[in-house]
C-alpha cells in the first residue's frame, strides 16, 4: 500500500537527495514535490488503462446539447474522466459501440443511453493512493523525480537519469497492469447512473 511520504521519498532517492521525515518538513525539495504531485499523478493516469482506476457509468443523453457528427444523441463526459477503456450500448460491455464519435467534452451516438468504462481521477478511484498497486506508485514517484530534478539539484545529468527511470517505471507498471487484466470487457456489476444537471465532484479535491 502506497502513501504520499513514501512516494516523495522514492522520488528524492531517484534525484540523490535525502528522505523527508514528514510531509510538513520545510525546504525546497518538499515544496517542489507538493507543487508537482498532482501533475505527476494526472500524467501517469493518462498514460495507461489502469485496472485499479476503472470506473463504470451509465450515461443518459443530454437534451441540452446539440448532437454532432450526424449522430442523434450527445453525452457529456464525466468530470473525473481521464481515458476511455470501452464504450457500449450494453450494460455488460460485451460488445463495443461501433458507431460513435467524440470531442474534448462530449460523446455522440445513435442510442440514448451509453455504458462507459474509463480511467477515473476521482479521489475514490485513480487518486485513491491507498489502492495504488506498487508499480503504479513507483511510476508516479519516477515521474515526480523527473519533474523536480533540475529545480532541486541543478544537475542536468541527474535530470537525464530521472527521465530514463521515469520511462522504464511507466513501461513496467503498464506491463504488470496488463498481466493482471483477466478479461477484455468488465463483467456486469454496479453501475453509476449519471443524470445531467447534477453537481459533479470536484477533480481537485486531492489528498
TrEMBL record:
Q: Which domain of life is it from?
A: Bacteria
By what name is this protein known? Uncharacterized protein
The organism of origin for this protein: Maritalea myrionectae
**Organism phylogeny:** Bacteria, Pseudomonadati, Pseudomonadota, Alphaproteobacteria, Hyphomicrobiales
